[in-house]
Amino acid sequence: MSYLLNENLDISTVLEATNQYKNWVSEASQALLVDGSQVGKTDAAGIQALASLFNSAQNSNVNIELVNATPTLEEAIRVLGLQRLIK
What we know:
The chain is 45% helix and 20% strand. By secondary structure, the protein is an alpha/beta fold. The strands form 2 sheets. A 3-stranded parallel beta sheet has the order 1-3-5, covered by helices on one side. Helix 1 packs parallel to helix 2.
C-alpha cells in the first residue's frame, strides 16, 4: 500500500498525522510505501512522528519504505540522525 505524507510535517499536524499513521500500519498487510513528494515544511515533532510510524511498522513486521522524499524532508531526517530508521 502507498500513502502520501501531508505537505506540512510539523507540530501543527502531529496529532492528526499520528492517528493517520496508526491506521496505515493496521491496514498494511506486508508492505507500506510512504510517499514524501509533497512535504514542504518539517520540524522535529513532525519527523519524530514519522520515526514513530517507521518504528511501529517494523515492530508489526510490516516492511516500510520512504519514497520520493523532498530535499526538505531528506535534510530534516539527516539533521535529526534518523537515516537508519527512516529509509
